[in-house]
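Listing 4. Sequential folding, example run.
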Amino acid sequence: MKRQKTIRVPTTGVNDFEKLILDEEAKYVDKTALLYGLARRKTDSQLFISRPRRFGKSLMLSTLKAMFEGRRNLFKGLAIDKLPWEGWKQPTPVYSFTMADAVGDTFDEFREQLADLVRQLYADAKIPFPTTGSVAGKFGKFLKAAAAKSKTKQIVILVDEYDEPIAKFLDDIETLNRVQSVLHDFYEKLKNNSGSIRFLLMTGVTKLTKLSVFSGLNHLTDISSFAEYATLLGYTPKELDGPLRENVEAFGKKSGMDFAAAKAAILSWYDGYRFSPRNENRVCNPVSIGCAFKDGELKGYWETTGRATLIINRIKKAGKMPADLENVRANKMTLDVCDAETLPMASLLYQGGYLTIKEVISPPRQPDGQPIGSESYILAPPNLEVREALKSGYISQVMGLEEDSFTPLVDAAKRQVASGDWKGYLYESLYGLYASIPPDWRIKNEAEAKRYFLLFASMTGANPQPEFATMLGYADAVIETPKAVCVFEFKYAKSAKAAIRQIRARGYADKWIGGKRPVTLVGINFNPRKRNIDLPIIEPA
């Protein structure tokens, strides 16, 4: 009997390169050609890169560690094995650590854990630990001593999750300032000893560049949006055609799809992340794809592996939902900067992986070709997985709702939308969803009331088209299904009748009248005294 071939599956949680390579059931998608280009930089070799969580940052650092240590046996058959990598002839000592090991519930716990981290570095280098001095001072002495001990008189430093201690205290400004002060002095030692460091790479999710801690790291080159590294983390569609093809085929076989259909389904769920305005290539979330291959099912894995508490806490503090997430206007500052005091929503959602670059808009040019202003961007959720995360668990988390009570309400609304039961959807479900808004959240005007409607409608699968353009203005929303068209107008502290009158007076529904699908007009008024909508008016066009 012929033995069935075992198909290796890309990792869903192994962050150690050696373990991954030696695991007979795991697959490593070869990124070593890109890592070679990154690591061979001799000048400008002290770097920073941000990517959303679960995108393989820790595995990347582990791979770089093995490269600099010259462990060529682990790279047999990979692209770098054929390249003139310096590490094969002259390894360099590597000291790698994660700042997640320096996160405590209090400032004293943080400082104690940071001291333990430095103590471990001394132990790894077999250098006596000094008994006096600050944590930052001891770290600076370690960098000098470790480099002096090295044959090359230099070392490699790899720092994962640099922002973890900071994110912990963003809602506690007093403690945050104390943590910042310690980290500023700690990270500054990397800059002061840059001559002893052959290569430095720091990773994180957010770029909290307005924190004072970053002034201690102003020597780093931020490669987060560099075109040449846009596909360094995550899987490209070409990699689904190549090293992952057998996994796509096996997934398709389980689901009754051919390769093309399976690939298209996988891309719709997990692809879409664009990390550089200068590179149109997009990548898939690697952990989600690995989970889908392992389970044989397309669903939301990224959100269930741990929510971005920093983003959720920020929205809770703001006391309102963000605006339309499908068309978020942004500029370079939005992508590159995150102010810790104001924590701009678009910056957080982009850096956290909830939004990505959908479109690059070039500025107009003068007759001599010089641009007028700078380019801008349209941001949107990258894929179905993120949209589902935004529609379900994310919203219930932000609003402080129990998913056991919230989910049935959402599910009922989804069924009503699917069956065309607009009366049940508007009279029952929409009223219940508005009633779920926390009592301390203020809805001050029509725009805010409409924002919730658009979010709820999106969450329940209605896929509203906001601000739909017509000859005489913009309808607040249009929902089209294969069987019907609904045109919505919103009012605040007025009446649903006034909303209906506006739809008719401005001909918002004229485009669809006379077509094969019935057209329904819906007027909705938000009543601030009730903190909910009045009974909507539903009329045929």
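-- end of first protein; second protein begins --
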Amino acid sequence: MRHVESETRDGVVVLRLNNPPVNSFGLDLRRELLAGLSLAEADPAVGAIVIIGSGKGFSGGADIREFGTPKTMMQPNLPALLRAVEECSKPVVAAIDGICMGGGFELALACHYRVALGSARLALPEVKLGLLPGAGGTQRLPRLVGVETALNMIVSGNPVSAEALKGTALFDLVAAADLPGASLEFAKSLIAQKRGPKKVRDLAIDMPNAEAYLQFARNTVKAAAGPYPAPLACVEAVAAAARGPFDAGLKRERELFVSLMATPESAALRHIFQAERAAGHIDGVADDTAVRPVNTVGVIGAGTMGGGITMALINAGIPVVLLESSQAALDRGLATIRGNYQGQLKKGKLTEEALNKRLALISPTLDYQPLAEVDLVIEAVFETMQVKEQVFRKLDTVARAGAILASNTSALDLNAIARFTGRPQDVIGLHFFSPANIMRLLEVVRGAATAADVLASAMALAKRIGKIAVVAGVCDGFIGNRMVARYGDAAHDLVLYGASPEQVDRVLEKFGFVMGPFRMADLAGLDVAMDVRKRRAREFPDQDFANIADVLCEQGRHGQKNGAGYYRYEPGARAAIADPAVGAIIDKFRADHGFTPRKVSDSEIIERCVYALVNEGAHILEDGIAQRSSDIDIVYLNGYGFPAFRGGPMFYADQVGLPEVVRALRRLAATPAREPSAWVPAPLLVRLAEQGGTLSGSAGAKS
């Protein structure tokens, strides 16, 4: 397959990028584009060159799969290609529509002229990968749009429309339609007018107060960047452009790019970028599997989860039949949905017209019969198998043939739920995270009988409603809640050994978690976790499920929702306040269970809590519950607040080194503990540590 197609029309060579899906600048495309450019420059019959994209637009930028590999620097690398474009003796026009990002935008900046559709979206998003534009973007963009606009684009990484930049020197023409025709006519006019190349590098930056502005930018960006070094490096690169000359700025940009490439933060963010894309590929299901149409959805339950799921669907324009068991519950659910939208309305994030349009997509009902014609039903009822059974047996009699039947269960056996129907192939788990209209993660649970097209349809729906979907197998808690249970046990044991909930939360939040385990437990509701422990105690009577949180619940402390859990909360406030009464409860629990408190170090807190996640994640891989190690990272990053700059628990373990993780787990297993067996390193970890392997290169067991 050719990655660049060439056509000559009226003395103009049109070089069309053809590297689906986003024309990324991999080595093959770079080579072919340079070859096409060289041939056009050498042809005396050619007066100008147009570079245009295909498919989704101009170009999505560099091929991230080549980062860290020899292909990145193999000639022509991107800077070398852009130098060849800039030094071309014939005028080169970039014709821009759709997406024009990263290295693709830098190519456009290196061209002598630019023609765009107003709808084109331009961005330098490298900062989101812990990097900065490394092929002249920080030097050329300020010369075309000004330092302030360029810096805002580079530091944020967010796309801007061509229409919004129409008045700048970035574009020579913003066309209303027919980009190929407009760019060809523009190139022909250059030939007719004998206008040669116009190099961006030759433009001067005229900003008398540049240094004062840049110092302000440094202070602002440093305060907002947190643990990420890239945003501040972006400021320094643009500062080099403002100081000039061009070649010195280009050298400084390259130095900063190389240093950022070596940072663990950039490695983590690049891992996440690739992991999100890998998550969409399902073992045993072809990427081109036909999907079942999902044009209408039924949601059973208008409570917190059902209401959030309904909002996620109607936000994407999907009509919902919302079923409740009583008028009062239905009215409460609808009022909550409206109230959530009213909050957006007050903040100016939503118009009254848009609000009414979304609410009109909801068809409330107290009867199962309207569910007979929907394409998908999602139950979001009380989390007990008895209630699930009632719902699915009823759905089996009502739902049309071919409809997908989904459970929002967070832990229960999906295979057992599927057996309540005569169509287990149509049953799937769609585990949304609360609040479902906001949280990006969706665990798609694959039952033993779930059909391939049902799985593919669920993944397609997830993309449509803006979710990051990860496929999970069936076990207690699937991926996320199975891991968080082990994490919670580790945190609870630390309190038994002598730490306070406040110390554990403080240390893990300093590590980078959005919220420590005890604040998170209060937010979720201690009574919810207690119900899970009671269920598990019935299922595993030989295990010890005694927990301080259950004592708190017995004393009416259910968490943030009633103002008291592990912490105390003022009415209407979310700030967690340490409560001496909790300390007294913990002291008594320790004494009753034979624990003598000792000093617990901050490093022990990190080891126990984070390595508990890693070890359980390795077991999940071995059991075939997760398809790949990176899927586990996606779950924990998007569902449980693991710090993105560390890349997820499994990636973090690779960065620490698996031999070190195994040594630490063995040390913890040898320490007196409530469940020493839980600290025995998973066989997968041991094997990889001995072989010099990594979790990031590991896939789940095939069933």
